[in-house]
Structures are given as structure tokens and as C-alpha cells.
Design brief:
heterodimer, A: alpha+beta, MetI-like fold, 4-stranded antiparallel sheet, two-stranded antiparallel ribbon, B: alpha/beta, 6-stranded mixed sheet, 14 strands, 18% strand
């Protein structure tokens, strides 16, 4: 016998290897049983009522209208309403991701600032926002701040910008004759600026010349369109401000109070978490790195930009992804303040059509796809940021 | 020789009968089934000892939770009436608070026995969702509340207006219909709770607030200054509200239907919470009153209930008029009844019960 005598004396129910496998099998079986029980419950209830689970209802006329975002009319089908909701969700999520990163990084750096006021202001913001529920903040921002702005009749006009409780209006650029030439100068300026930047930056690095790559690129990017604007016989764009027409404003670019409140709420809330993540990331960079950079004669800003932040990114990105996902999922609180995002529209669809199971399944699949996409992109960024060869 | 075909025919007949007898129930039999009133749900409810009833908790008058945590309102009282009919005890109800969006799923999954939650009877809900609608207990219609100083006197003045609307109701679709038929544009602000919708309108975010007129009356009282708001004359929709149950158990449906009608018949006959016991004991002469109170006939047994179940129902909650008065009258949300569709048919309204015979 190959087995050691002690092993063979042990009964199988005390054998660790058997127990491990048996435990896993039991867990899988129990999970399957629960799922099967839930599924049979559902199918029985649906069968008893003669309901089917097909998605064909999505082609039916919705019967309600959406006037936010891309919008839809009452004769459009349900699937279009779903897409309008998706578009509204994506616009607030994308704008939110960019802005919250800005707010979070700035507040995170401020948390470590030697300036007493800046440091404590940032700390107050982080602690206040991080420790209260998001929904409460959204209600406060929407009902307490945005809706208490002046009415449309008493609107606040700050030059071309119009503020009221019905929304914020910016002038809308209207292309005029010859605007294509000007557009070409913008694109040309960007391309030329980029090329000059990389070229001069390389020269600066390799030869140590004072080439000012950033400034020269900026001059091109601004200068070329400016030159075209002056040279052209008439301005390429005319800015059209919103005007009051009866009960509403026409023209201009509008941000609805609901979008504004939701965006502000999501950005501030997520930014508070990101600020602490950034702070931790900066502190995680070995102190010697900072001192070495200083001893090379780098300015305080350059120490942060060139040495500390790139290294802290490796610590920051994984928890940052979590916050991005939170922002995307928290955007589903929009309904509370009247913003018709994907979740809100789905609620309306399933109540109008009564097809709850399908709509919820579709909703979950869409949020899952959205979250997986964000994770995928951020994982790619993370791999790019990793120190090569480590 | 003559007998033979007869014998053969008899044998064939016998064999046929035997086969027919052996055949399982798949074959459609045109023989009338004996009417034994057996409701699976009624049995289940009896075994449970409680009726599970889906209600609203945020509409004063129709379904609300009072300071003592009691479900009060017109709709919860319908639940109490059904419980009284089954158990003789109006307290044998478990109230399940449901949102507008949850309510049909709760019926479809057998979560509740009856839904009594200001639910509008529509064709697609009736036919497609696996639900059956009971007699209409309240005839409602969608209206529009505006600021009194806004200069709007009809919907036609409201082109380009922003309208606050509660999501998940027929209200949204009616709003789109009403403005479409008038060829007017509008902007909808859709919110998911009644409180938020009213608050957004009160803050001035919207030019109008649309909801069922019965609810607008209640919402107006919650505004910062109720007198600054007016309700436009137009009615944008028909909203017949009543109890709902899951499709499939016909006997259960019959029982709920006749309990609701018993409330209406009682009002018609002048039977009230105060006098029902006396009338039942005094051997009344009116034949229909005798049948309703179970003194004559077997009407209770037909529904699987006690013969005098109506006495229990009226003792517990009163008749239709009393329930209306209690929750929607001047003491409640003050929705006038006289001259409206919700008056008794004898007063020109639509509240009507089929004959009790």
C-alpha cells in the first residue's frame, strides 16, 4: 500500500481533501437549487396568468413623450424611449467622469497643500460630502439650490449667459458663410501645434535647448484660427443668445436644471472619494523621489507633474475605477430629481407596458455592459501606466 | 335477424360511452357543470386567516397611513369590506404598500390577493396583464392645476408650457394625447413621487401640474398658498378606479365584485353602519333588502360566504356613501360628490349595482 497508515485510518469525512471538494459541490448544488426554485416560481406565476416573456412589445407605440435630451414623440416605439434614456444616461455619465476626475485630483492635491485654508477647505468638502447620502445631496441641490434660482420672468442675465430655475442658457454658435475655412484653420492649428510640440520637446530632451515646446504649440493653436477670423470678410460664427418667447426660451444652448443638478451632485459626491484616493496615491510615492526631484532643481509644480503624479497613478487607478463605476451606477438616482435617465425611462416603460420582467432584464444587461466597458477601458489604461518590465 | 343491428348499435353505444368515460378531461364537454362555488384563492385566504391587500400609502383620501400607523382611506376600506365578508372581521387584512410601478407585478406573482390602490381600468391592463378589474368605485379624470395669476383659462392657452407630471401612471400618456390633439408643444418634467412632483411645481419649475382631479384637490392644500392655484375646467381622460385581482380564479372575482356591489346596494336601500343590525333583526318587508341581508335566498352560499355576509360588511365599514363621506367628504379631502359621476344612479350618477336576485 502506497498510502501512509495514518491516512488510511482517517475516515473520509475527516479527510480535508474530500471535505474541500464536497463543500464546493454542496455550495454549487445549493445555489443551483435556489436559482431553479426562483425560476420555477416565476415561470409558474407567468404561466398561470398566460403571460409571455418576448421582447416584441418594444416595437409597440409608446404613447408617452420625452422632452429631455434627444427626446421622442408619443407615436415612437418603446425601444426608442429606451435609447433616449440611454443617451441621457451616457451624457451625464461621460460629463460626470471627466469633471469628477478634475474635481477629485484638485481636491486631493489640496488636501496635502501647505496652505492652511486650502487644506482645510478641501478636508471640509471631502468629509461633508463623503459622509452624507447622495440622494439627500441631490434633493438639496435640486430643490434647495437650483429650483430657488429666479423664475424665467426674473431671469438673471450675466452678459450672454442666462440663469433661471428653468435652466442655464449659453449663446449658440451659428455657422456663417465661409465657416469651413475657419474650421480648417482650427484643425490645421491643432495638427501643426501637435507636430511642433513633439518636435521641440524631443530637441529639448535630447539637446537640452530651451525650446519652450508648450508655448510655441499654444501660439499656433490659438494664432492660426485667430488669423483666419480676422482675414475672413465676415465672422465665421455668429453667437445667438436665447430669447423669451411666450412661456419658454428659444435659441441658445440649454442645460436643464435636472441635468445640472444631477451632474453637480454626482461630480461632487464622487470627487470627494477620488480626492482621498489621490491623496493616498501621492503619499504612497516614496519621499526620496520628491527630494531627488527637488535636488535636481525642478520647481514644486514640476515635481508634482513630472515625478509624483505619474508614479501615484499606479496606486490610484484601481480604486479610481471603482469610483467611476459608482458614478455610472449612481446616475440611476436621476429619477428622484426629474432627470429621465435609463432607469427612469425603464420605469416608465415597464409601467406603461406592464412587461416588468423583460424591462428589468434589459435594464440590468445595459448597466452591466456599461460598467464592463468602463472597467475594460480603465484596465487598459492601468496596463499602459504600469512600470514596464515589472 | 332484426335484433342484431340493434344489439350491435347498443354495443357500439355502450363501448362509446365507456370510452368517453375513460377519456381524460382534455375533451371539451358541453354538458353544463354543476355550479359548485370553489375558489382556490378563497380557500388559501381562509387557511392563511388574512387577506393580503395592495394599497397606496401616499394619497390622502384614497390610501394613506395616519399618525397611528393605520392604513386609512377609501381603498383600504374596500379591503376591510372584503375581509369582513370572508372572516366577519375587518381587521383580518394585511396591507401591502405598493408603488404604481410595483402593483401589477405584485398581482402577477401572487404576492397579494386584491389590489385596491386607485388603479385605472384600461383595456391593455385588463386584457394583457393577467389582471381582472372589479366594479368602478370612483370615477376620476385627469385635470390641470395652474397658478391663478398665470392667465391660463383653458388648456389651449398652454402652448410651450412646462408641465410637472408623476411618472408611472396613465397621466403621462394622457398628457401627450391632450397636447397632441390640440397641436400644442409642451415640455414635461417627469418625477417619480407625488411629493417631488408637487414640490417642483410649487417652486415654479413648471407652469402646470397634471394629475387626476381627485388628487389635485388634495395636492392644492399642500401648496405654500393654496389660493394662488386654480384647476382648469377640462378633463383630459376617463379614469375609472376600482379593485383589481389576478385573472384565473373566476369565483374569487365574483366574490370581490359582489362585496363591492353590496356597499352600493346598501346605500341604495338606506342600510347604514348604524342601522344594519336593527334592520336585519326587524324582519324587513322590502324583498331585495331581505335577499341582501341573507334573510331570504342562498346568495351568500353562492359566493362561498356566510348567508348574512353583507351584515358583517356594513357593520364593519358602512355603505358606499358612508365610506365616501368618511374619506372624501368635507371631513376628508373634500371632493364634492353631488352632481358628479360618483353620485348614486338614483341621483344621476354612475354608482350602480346589478339587482340582487
Amino acid at each position: 500500500m502506497a498510502r501512509s497508515p495514518s491516512r488510511s485510518l482517517e475516515p473520509f469525512w475527516r479527510d480535508v481533501r474530500v471535505l474541500r471538494v464536497a463543500g464546493q459541490i454542496a455550495f454549487v448544488l445549493a445555489s443551483l437549487a435556489v436559482v431553479a426554485w426562483l425560476a420555477s416560481n416565476l415561470s409558474q406565476a407567468l404561466e398561470a396568468r398566460g403571460l409571455d416573456l418576448s421582447f416584441s412589445f418594444l416595437r409597440r407605440t409608446a404613447g408617452f413623450a420625452i422632452t429631455q435630451g434627444p427626446g421622442m414623440v408619443r407615436t415612437d416605439p418603446y425601444w426608442k424611449a429606451f435609447l433616449v434614456g440611454l443617451a441621457n444616461s451616457l451624457s451625464v455619465i461621460l460629463a460626470g467622469l471627466v469633471l469628477t476626475t478634475l474635481v477629485g485630483v484638485l481636491a486631493g492635491i489640496a488636501l496635502l497643500s501647505p496652505n492652511w485654508l486650502l487644506r482645510n477647505a478641501s478636508r471640509t468638502y471631502v468629509e461633508l460630502v463623503r459622509n452624507t447620502p447622495l440622494l439627500v445631496q441631490l434633493f438639496f441641490i435640486y430643490f434647495g439650490v437650483v429650483l430657488t434660482m429666479p423664475s424665467l420672468q426674473d431671469r438673471l442675465e450675466l452678459g450672454p449667459v442666462i440663469l433661471s430655475q428653468r435652466g442655464v442658457w449659453l449663446p449658440r454658435p451659428v455657422p456663417q458663410e465661409g465657416y469651413l475655412i475657419w474650421l480648417a484653420s482650427v484643425v490645421g492649428g491643432l495638427a501643426l501645434g501637435g507636430w511642433v510640440y513633439t518636435r521641440r520637446e524631443r530637441r529639448r530632451r535630447l539637446l537640452g535647448e530651451e525650446t519652450h515646446p508648450f508655448l510655441s504649440a499654444l501660439a499656433l493653436i490659438i494664432g492660426l484660427p485667430l488669423l483666419a477670423w480676422i482675414v475672413l470678410p465676415q465672422p465665421a460664427l455668429r453667437f445667438e443668445a436665447a430669447v423669451l418667447d411666450g412661456l419658454r426660451m428659444v435659441g441658445g444652448l440649454r442645460m436643464t436644471p435636472e441635468f445640472f443638478a444631477l451632474l453637480l451632485g454626482l461630480v461632487l459626491y464622487t470627487g470627494a472619494f477620488i480626492a482621498d484616493i489621490v491623496r493616498a496615491g501621492i503619499l504612497a510615492v516614496a519621499h526620496g523621489q520628491r527630494e531627488a526631484a527637488r535636488s535636481l532643481g525642478l520647481s514644486e509644480g514640476n515635481v508634482l507633474r513630472l515625478v509624483v503624479l505619474p508614479q501615484s497613478m499606479r496606486v490610484v487607478i484601481p480604486p479610481l475605477v471603482n469610483q467611476y463605476l459608482n458614478l455610472a451606477k449612481n446616475s440611476s438616482l436621476a429619477f428622484g430629481i426629474g432627470y429621465l435617465d435609463l432607469y427612469a425611462v425603464s420605469q416608465i416603460i415597464f409601467n406603461q407596458s406592464g412587461q416588468a420582467v423583460q424591462v428589468i432584464a434589459l435594464l440590468m444587461a445595459t448597466y452591466l455592459a456599461m460598467s464592463l466597458l468602463i472597467s475594460f477601458v480603465m484596465n487598459w489604461v492601468n496596463r499602459r501606466m504600469a512600470i514596464p518590465g515589472r | 335477424m332484426i335484433r342484431r343491428p340493434i344489439v350491435l348499435a347498443l354495443a357500439a353505444l355502450g363501448l362509446g360511452l365507456l370510452l368517453a368515460a375513460c377519456q381524460p378531461a382534455e375533451v371539451q364537454v358541453d354538458v353544463p357543470v354543476e355550479f359548485v362555488m370553489e375558489s382556490e384563492r378563497l380557500d388559501a385566504v381562509r387557511a392563511r386567516g388574512q387577506l393580503v391587500c395592495g394599497v397606496n400609502t401616499s394619497v390622502p383620501g384614497f390610501g394613506f397611513v395616519d399618525a397611528n400607523g393605520q392604513n386609512v382611506g377609501f381603498d383600504p376600506d374596500v379591503c376591510r369590506a372584503i375581509a369582513a365578508a370572508i372572516f366577519g372581521d375587518p381587521a383580518a387584512v394585511e396591507f401591502r404598500p405598493l408603488t404604481a410601478a410595483e402593483r401589477f407585478t405584485a398581482l402577477q406573482t401572487n404576492e397579494i390577493d386584491v389590489l385596491s390602490r386607485n388603479t385605472t381600468w384600461t383595456m391593455s391592463r385588463d386584457v394583457e396583464l393577467g389582471t381582472d378589474f372589479g366594479p368602478t368605485t370612483f370615477y376620476d379624470g385627469q385635470g390641470m392645476m395652474v397658478r391663478a395669476d398665470s392667465g391660463f383659462s383653458t388648456l389651449n392657452d398652454m402652448g410651450g408650457a412646462t408641465i410637472c407630471v408623476l411618472a408611472g401612471t396613465t397621466t403621462e400618456a394622457n398628457l401627450a394625447d391632450a397636447f397632441n390633439t390640440r397641436g400644442l408643444e409642451y415640455e414635461a418634467l417627469v418625477l417619480d413621487t407625488g411629493d417631488a412632483t408637487a414640490a417642483a411645481y410649487d417652486e415654479g419649475r413648471c407652469d402646470g401640474l397634471t394629475s387626476d382631479k381627485s388628487q389635485l384637490a388634495g395636492l392644492r392644500t399642500t401648496m405654500t398658498s393654496p389660493d394662488d392655484h386654480a384647476i382648469l375646467p377640462e378633463t383630459m381622460s376617463k379614469e375609472p378606479l376600482g379593485p383589481v385581482w389576478a385573472h384565473g380564479d373566476q369565483q374569487w372575482g365574483d366574490m370581490v365584485r359582489w362585496v363591492v356591489w353590496s356597499l352600493i346596494v346598501a346605500e341604495e336601500k338606506g342600510i347604514t353602519q348604524a342601522n344594519v343590525a336593527d334592520i336585519a333583526a326587524s324582519d324587513p318587508q322590502d324583498p331585495e333588502t331581505r335577499r341582501v341581508l341573507g334573510i331570504e335566498g342562498e346568495f351568500g352560499a353562492l359566493l362561498g360566504l356566510e348567508p348574512d355576509f353583507v351584515v358583517d360588511v356594513i357593520t364593519a365599514v358602512g355603505n358606499y356613501g358612508e365610506i365616501y363621506e368618511r374619506h372624501l367628504g368635507p371631513a376628508g379631502t373634500n371632493i364634492p360628490r353631488e352632481g358628479t359621476l360618483n353620485a348614486l344612479w338614483t341621483d344621476g350618477g354612475l354608482i350602480y349595482a346589478p339587482p340582487w336576485r
